[in-house]
Amino acid sequence: MKQILTLLIVFFVLFSCKNENNTSENTYKEPLETENTVPSFGIVIHGGAGTILKENMTDSLENVYRAKLEEAIKVGHTILKNGGTAMEAVTKTINIMEDSPLFNAGKGAVFTHEETNELDASVMDGATRNAGAIAGVKHIKNPINLAHAVMEHSPHVLLSGEGAERFAKEQGIETVDASYFYTESRFKTLQRVKEREGSNTTKKVSVGKDPYIKDSKFGTVGCVALDKNGDLAAGTSTGGMTNKRWNRIGDSPIIGAGTYANNATCAVSSTGWGEFFIRGMVAHDISAMMEYKGVSLQEAAKEVIQKKLPNLGGDGGIIAIDKKGNVSMEFNTPGMYRAHMDSEDNLKIAMYKE
């Protein structure tokens, strides 16, 4: 009888332990299966890099720049917060800056040597790595919209000049008279550059040694974004370089130099001396370092902007965001107009070195 009771007790204890283990396992797994996490998203913008110094900026002008950067980034952030795509956020945000005379894109585009305005832009989708770009257009109100149309509605990546404008008309992209892009400050800048150029008797043979280019290339705008679906996108828009000749095209419409996006790594938009960004394929180089060397976004951006680019002779900066929402706003010039907003509505706006 005692043996039977002993066996019953042992059986009961073993059964209870098994149930406790099962309960413990179920309790552990259930939160993982029902976990409700808020998708991460974020957006970063730039309005150009260059000789942006506090001592050269009045309080009123600084406030104007800050207000426009805030207006632009909040447009894109709202799109992302409401579940919109990274690409939509990028294009709509850049539209705000293209419509402002503060930046060298759209309305505020700089003048060529011939006193005209020639605009470039590009976009790239990190999910598909599809891309669209336009260069040398003169009547497109928002060049970033045309770049997006090239990506979505053509078999090509880059269209230029008159052909790009014909395509714009077919796609219903808004065009304007060339006079729309005229701003007094940009025109006066061109005249000053021409005067300095005319007073010099030494013929310049290398763009890398031309002092008249030094502060004539900045103001490009760009945006990178990560949406709630985990998709990345990048876009860049510019009027190019003051006093540029011969239909010069910089890095902004060049995929891999001025713009790049890949869901596996990051999205990048560049601003600076375009010839060197093209030679270094700066935007793609940052992504490639992350992909092949396994370094972080910030490590890659710092290596490229603070070492590789200066070693070539170039200057400027980038904004970037990776697939986890980490951001970089790296530059090697005295300043860069920039702003960032994350999924918790934190906003950062800056202009100078910190």
Question: Would you give an account of this structure?
Answer:
With 354 residues, the protein is α+β, with helices and mostly antiparallel strands. It has a single domain (42-352), classed as Glutamine Phosphoribosylpyrophosphate, subunit 1, domain 1. Helix content is 40%, strand content 21%. It is built from nine helices and twelve strands. Strands 4-3-2-6-5-1-11-12 form an eight-stranded mixed β-sheet. A four-stranded antiparallel β-sheet has the order 7-8-9-10. Helix 2 packs antiparallel against helix 3, helix 3 packs antiparallel against helix 4 (143-153) and helix 8 packs across helix 9 (297-312). The protein is globular. Residues 7-37 and 201-212 have low confidence and may be disordered.
Q: Report the helical percentage.
A: 40-55%
CATH class category label: Alpha Beta
Question: How many strand elements?
Answer: 12
Unreliable stretches covering 5 or more consecutive residues? 7-37, 201-212
- Sequence of strands across the biggest β-sheet: 4-3-2-6-5-1-11-12
Order of helices and strands: HEHHEEHEHHEEEEHHHEEEE
State the CATH architecture: 4-Layer Sandwich
Radius of gyration: 26 Å
Percentage of β-strand residues: 15-25%
Largest sheet: 8 strands, mixed
CATH H-level superfamily: (Glycosyl)asparaginase
Q: Fill in the CATH topology.
A: Glutamine Phosphoribosylpyrophosphate, subunit 1, domain 1
The rough form would be described as: globular
Q: What is the rounded distance between the termini?
A: 84 Å
Tally of helical runs:
9
User: What structural class is derived from the secondary structure elements?
Assistant: alpha+beta
